[in-house]
Design brief:
Helices cover about 45% and strands about 15% of the residues. With about 325 residues, the protein is an alpha/beta fold. The strands form 4 sheets. It has a 7-stranded parallel sheet with strand order 3-2-1-4-5-6-11, sandwiched between helices. Helix 9 packs across helix 11. The radius of gyration is 19 Å and the shape is globular. The two termini are about 35 Å apart.
Length: about 325
Amino acid sequence: MNTYLITGGAGFIGSHLADNLLKEGNKIIVIDNFCDFYNPKIKERNVKNNLNNPNYLLYRIDIRDMMAIESVFESNNIDCVIHLAAMAGVRPSIENPTLYQEVNCLGTQNILECMKKYHINKLVMASSSSVYGNCKEVPFKESFVVDYAISPYAATKKANEVMTHVYHALDNMNVIMLRFFTVFGPRQRPDLAINKFTRLMLIDEQIPMFGDGSTSRDYTYVGDIVDGIKSSIKYVLENDNVYEIINLGNSNPVSLKDMINTIGEVLNKEPKILELPMQPGDVEKTYADITKAKKLLGYDPKTSFKEGIQKFVEWYKNQEE
């Protein structure tokens, strides 16, 4: 049995990961602040089935609170940290860049300092495909220069990649930074397009489409992402002197128009589209080169976009009931 600390463990990806690792008989410690970025009841629902499990510990604290974070490290023997807690989203980061800087950079620094102090040197952390900005060359390779962020959110994620390297170099920390491409599936945040568009189509309202529908995203099903995170955990536990940045995507971009039509098809609804101008900070395309993930982690995403949408819609309708 290993003990894993998952920050942001009540969120979309974190709760799926916690459920999966618990089923395998591990001890899971979750840190989450249940903030109101979206309805906290959603996170409550994500964790409720685990609250009576003796191998599950939940701390309702903010990663900016160094004293509270330190108390978690002090009272638990942790084998590996999976740091997923962050303020997410490109557009909201443009509205409130200071908050993103505080949570994503200072909060991460607190985690790294506690790991150093309590001699925990295994870290898997969420970065983001947003670091690639409006990169013209596709697919996006980890070797590309990513110094030209176009949102505060992307800038904080790039800063995290640089800062974790400092702890790798000075404190022998084994680090895998995972650049997630658009993750979707059951429990997805309500502010994200697939969730929002499903909701609007079911009540016959208009779908706001920014741009002409040709922008595309490399959508990755949450189950495939969890598999990639678990392989990363195994890799940092079994190897030394690790510092890797790895794309976790599906390597199969889907256009905005096709995404809307696929949801319509699964719901058996004709989408009503409201065309709007492109939003600042939005990138035109994301497209992951997953060669490195395949080679190092044996990563092999299996869920097609349509299959993932079917699973999401089934979950969504069950929630509504």
